[in-house]
């Protein structure tokens, strides 16, 4: 199973209630993200992270094309959590079965954040699925070695451990 997407951290300096709602998980998060994206008062960082958050909310609704579109839009704003745009785009491509684009997105995310455990695990899952077991094992081990600040850290470690155990049992 793929991770639930990583969320940008909610900066305590964000003046906007909409921004806090957007990066949260309430039912009106998408509307709040729309307001942040269209606000003349939002910073480039807030707009970029709002695109990431809205993309994650679409991902959670299985609207992968809309999610990918928002992750792509986020990148032009160079938000502080830009690696989430790439990592989450990788997850959306994986859910669509587009393994090459998923691997590319995860690889970019890892190049931006060498401690992004969920990107290592996500890429490892694709490698394992496509029969590239050695690469999968490398990524799972990397996920266990690094320390991420994102909320999907526990998923990344637990999934990597489980898959390494399964690969060892099958060998």
Global geometry:
elongated
Strand content: under 5%
Number of strands: 0
- Largest sheet properties: none
Radius of gyration: 16 Å
Question: How many alpha or pi helices?
Answer: 9
* Helix and strand sequence: HHHHHHHHH
Distance between the termini: 22 Å
Mean pLDDT across residues: 90
Helix % is 55-70%
User: Which blocks of ≥5 consecutive residues have pLDDT under 50?
Assistant: 10-15
Assign the structural class, choosing from mainly alpha, mainly beta, alpha/beta, alpha+beta, or little secondary structure. mainly alpha
What would the keywords be for this entry?
single chain; 171 residues; mainly alpha; 9 helices
3D architecture notes:
- With 171 residues, the chain is mainly α.
- It has 9 helices and no strands.
- The longest helix has 18 residues.
- The chain starts with 16 loop residues before the first helix and ends with a helix.
Fold topology:
Blueprint: H1 17-22, H2 29-37, H3 44-60, H4 64-75, H5 82-96, H6 99-112, H7 117-129, H8 133-145, H9 153-170
Helix pairs in contact: 2-3, 3-4, 3-5, 4-5, 5-6, 5-7, 6-7, 7-8, 7-9, 8-9
Quick structural overview:
It contains nine helices and no strands.
